[in-house]
Design goal:
This protein is an alpha/beta fold. 23% of the residues lie in helices and 27% in strands. It is built from eight helices and 16 strands. Strands 1-2-7-3-4-6-5 form a seven-stranded mixed sheet, sandwiched between helices. A six-stranded antiparallel beta barrel has the order 8-9-15-12-11-16. Strand 12 and strand 13 form a beta hairpin. The two termini are 29 Å apart. About 12% of the residues have low confidence. Bound molecules: guanosine-5'-triphosphate and magnesium ion (MG). The site of guanosine-5'-triphosphate has 15 residues, from loops.
């Protein structure tokens, strides 16, 4: 996806893009005949049995920070790492797989360009893909049939299996299998190694519940540039087992608790005529209903301002509440007197938090850093 002229000129994605795909009962993608983006989102959200949110990230090294920000900030359920079958596994593919592994995001490798990859190059790329996955302690499992889709989707929650799907965006080869996989994948909360799960909403008029999350899945796709295709060894993955004892999975469960204190990181702020101030971001934990009172901050002075949530939208569709793992926009109004001073009182980088957490602003923090080793470290 391209948003800027320089992206079109270079053919490189440099920003985070979001698209949604609705899948009907039989696993077919919904293709609403809507011309405007807003109506398309609304149609998909309203009719899809499952709504898959694609977060398109940047493959090029130059935009790695953007890719890391998407992987860490948007809580994707899975990472679709795209590899060109005609090119072999690139340095950036290794980097992206390493990032997914470090963040506990289960990878799915999509080997593309099967239409133009010479068989010997494709075979070599598939072997390289299998090798890098094994190095990341993942078992490559090449999906070649509907039966394999079910096996892959059923096994991914174990945390060791990485499905590999061979496709062509030009001829459409393999796309049915990829769609079927996206239809059947479990939501992240059920996966071992997941630091957080991604949620979604039921169509409007339904009241979302934690169980409703099972109908929504978010995936990221980063351009990789590696390759492989054709052969590639895979073995039958083991049967799913409970995530017992995994601290990351326990973290996901805690975030998913509807009673957990709500927390939203704000990544954009805008003003809508007739609505007022709207802040948008990802719900990291809890459930936020319309009418909730939350604290917004910290301000420059380190304070938190009480605000009321007046309405909530996800992809242009109104919802009565937003739950953990979802990117949503909240129309908010300060409770009582508006904050004094000129300029925006709501800013990107602030947080919306549950008053029960009694937030306090700090200037310093202690962090645990994980350095990923690679040739450019
Ligand atoms: N023949 C063929 N070309 C493809 C296929 N998939 C992608 N391409 C072409 O490959 C080029 C790069 O594809 P993109 O989707 O822009 O690659 P990307 O991974 O998003 O790259 P970044 O944005 O830099 O991350 C484009 O010219 C596509 O048309 C395919 O399956 N077959
Ligand atoms: Mg791109």
């Amino acid at each position: 996806m391209f948003r800027h002229t320089h992206e079109k000129e270079t053919g490189r994605t440099s920003t985070i893009g979001v698209e949604v795909m609705g899948i009907d009962e039989s696993g077919r993608p919904l293709r609403p005949n809507e011309t405007s983006r807003q109506r398309h989102f609304q149609a998909v959200r309203g009719a899809g049995r499952r709504v898959v949110t694609f977060v398109d990230l940047a493959g090029h090294e130059r935009y790695l920070k953007t890719t890391i920000s998407g992987l860490t900030g948007l809580l994707p359920d899975y990472a679709l790492v795209v590899v060109g079958l005609n090119m072999g596994v690139s340095k950036m593919t290794r980097e992206h797989l390493g990032l997914a592994a470090a963040l506990g995001i289960p990878p799915i490798v999509v080997c593309t360009k099967v239409d133009i990859a010479p068989p010997d190059v494709a075979k070599h790329t598939m072997e390289s893909v299998a090798k890098v996955l094994r190095a990341a302690r993942k078992m490559p499992y090449v999906v070649r049939s509907e039966k394999d889709v079910a096996t892959a989707a059923g096994s991914i929650a174990v945390g060791r299996v990485a499905p590999v799907v061979v496709v062509s965006s030009v001829t459409g080869e393999g796309m049915d299998l990829l769609r079927a996989l996206l239809h059947q994948l479990p939501v992240r909360g059920g996966c071992v190694g997941a630091p957080a799960a991604c949620g979604d909403f039921l169509p409007p008029a339904s009241v979302p519940t934690p169980a409703a999350k099972a109908e929504g899945v978010d995936v990221t796709g980063g351009g990789g540039g590696g390759g492989g295709g054709g052969g590639g060894g895979s073995t039958a993955p083991e049967a799913p087992s409970p995530a017992g004892g995994d601290p990351a999975a326990a973290g996901a469960a805690a975030a998913a608790d509807p009673a957990a204190p709500s927390h939203v990181t704000i990544d954009s702020v805008f003003s809508v005529p007739g609505v007022g101030t709207v802040v948008a971001g990802t719900v990291l934990s809890g459930i936020i209903p319309v009418g909730a009172t939350l604290l917004l901050g910290p301000t420059g002075a380190g304070d938190f301002i009480p605000v009321t949530v007046r309405s909530i939208e996800v992809n242009y569709v109104s919802f009565p509440m937003a739950q953990w793992g979802t990117s949503a926009a909240f129309a908010i109004r300060p409770k009582g007197k508006p904050p004094a001073g000129r300029g925006a009182w709501a800013k990107k980088g602030m947080h919306l938090v549950d008053p029960r957490t009694r937030p306090v602003a700090h200037w310093g923090f202690v962090a645990e850093a994980l350095v990923l080793h690679h040739s450019t470290t």
